[in-house]
Amino acid sequence: PITCGLHGEDIFLEGLPQPYQNEALAIIRERAADVDRFLAISAYYGDMFSKWVWLDPSKIDVVYPGVALDDYRTLTPDSSDSRPLTIGFLARFVPEKGLHLLVNAFIRLCRSGEFPNLRLIAGGYVSRAYKTYVDGIRRTIRENRLEERIKLLGTLERADKLNFFRQIDIFSVPAPYREPKGISILEALASGVPVVQPDHGAYPEWVNATQGGLLHRPHDSADLAEKLATLLRDADLRKRLGQQGRQGVFEKFSSERMAQSTLEAMRRLIKSVNHENLA
Fold first, then answer.
1. Would the pTM count as exceeding 0.90?
2. Which residues are CB-neighbours of 102 under 8 A, at least 6 positions away?
């Protein structure tokens, strides 16, 4: 039997100019008949892909992604009273990940005067292709005199990433793109950090499965700011959602759980193929 993983190929295909996009889709639709079972990283992406390539949904199993949790088992947040409330962002600095929306929401929160010591830390890879985008964000930060409250870091290695999660109180990647996976969201939850994510793509699945955060209207920095404010005002809510999110990831999104789900999907496939051959 032949299986094929579905992990977010849409962003590449949608970026192809015509006529190449239609030609690529035509080839995928034709060759999909050779695949016995597709393994989608989320129910959202499985459903989207099936409609995209005219595929029978029964040929798709959902296998949630897994996080290597060893480093997160002993990770404890920095609960120092001297540390200011901090929002974190960790993703590539590209428009589809929504850093500009988070910066705009942060500016709203600062202008409210309710959170005088609030900080934003953003880590992620910056490519030359998106220098203009990042320069625009830096200009917005300067124009609002927030250089001391917003820190844009580069790519974080694993040890730095773990320390990053220790230093934040809320995590958000308000992607305008309908993200099929969003692994950094699961890593934040594994660290006990509640999340605020857009209500589209796979994010509602992750939030509902873990009960570890809030959802905001996509593309809406004002609603994002309000959801962030809800958590910033309520330490008990942050703690409860963080604990629920951590437990949810350990139960449903571990690498061991992903391996087990993959094995179960393969066994079902082999059983169905053997049954068809006998018939």
1. yes
2. 87, 89, 120, 122, 172, 173, 174, 221, 224
Read off φ and ψ for residue 214, nearest 5 degrees.
-120, 155
* Mean pLDDT, residues 46-51 taken together: 93
- Which pLDDT does position 276 carry in this prediction? 66
Residue from 264, 273, 204, 207 nearest 39 by CA: 264
pLDDT of res. 27: 95
Instruction: Write a three-state SS string for the chain.
Output: CCEEEECCCHHHHHCCCCCHHHHHHHHHHHHHHHCCEEEECCHHHHHHHHHHCCCCHHHEEECCCCECCHHHCCCCCCCCCCCCCEEEEECCCCHHHCHHHHHHHHHHHHHHCCCCCCEEEEECCCCHHHHHHHHHHHHHHHHCCCCCCEEECCCCCHHHHHHHHHCCCEECCCCCCCCCCCHHHHHHHHCCCCEEEECCCCHHHHHHHHCCEEEECCCCHHHHHHHHHHHHCCHHHHHHHHHHHHHHHHHHCEHHHHHHHHHHHHHHHHHHHHHHHHC
Q: What local confidence, expressed as pLDDT, does residue 277 receive?
A: 64
150, two tokens: 């917003």
What's the rounded Cα separation, in Å, for the pair 99 and 138?
Answer: 11
Task: Delimit the domains of the chain by residue range.
Answer: 3-66+255-278, 70-252
CATH T-level topology, domain 70-252: Rossmann fold (3.40.50)
CA trace torsion 206, 209, 210, 214 (10° rounding): 60
Mean pLDDT of 103-126: 96
Relative to beta strand 60-62, strand 37-40 is parallel
